[in-house]
Write a structure and sequence with these properties.
The chain has no helices and ten strands. The chain is an all-beta fold. The strands form two sheets. The protein has a five-stranded antiparallel sheet with strand order 4-3-2-1-5, with no helix packed on it. The chain has a five-stranded antiparallel sheet with strand order 9-8-7-6-10, with no helix packed on it. The model has no long low-confidence stretch (mean pLDDT about 90).
Length: about 110
């Protein structure tokens, strides 16, 4: 995960909390929650977070045989996204943590 990534908490008391990564190390990720009730940064283990996307987000694949390709998210299911890859007009499934939001989608 990188600074600026939108993430979702997947375990613990703050499960389903969404926030933006403001700092990270190998052992800790600090996010600024999007929830109005929580206005202070909160830290988590990296394993407690996944990247968060919305349907229609334009993304870039960062791993696998389609590395570097761009596409659009058509389906989301927990940790897996269905992405239609631009150049080949084919839907593939990939882990959300292997995607980055393209600049024009932010």
């Amino acid at each position: 995960m990188n600074v600026g990534d939108l993430v979702k908490v997947i375990e613990g008391d703050l499960r389903n909390l969404i926030g933006v990564v403001i700092d990270h190390t190998d052992k800790q990720v600090t996010i600024l929650p999007k929830e109005i009730e929580i206005n202070e940064p909160v830290s988590f283990l990296p394993t407690q977070l996944i990247k968060h996307f919305k349907l229609g987000d334009k993304v870039k694949l960062t791993e696998g045989s389609y590395h570097g390709q761009q596409g659009t998210i058509l389906k989301l299911d927990d940790k897996v996204a269905g992405v239609i890859v631009d150049n080949i007009n084919q839907e593939i499934k990939c882990l959300v943590n292997t995607l980055d939001v393209c600049v024009e989608s932010k």
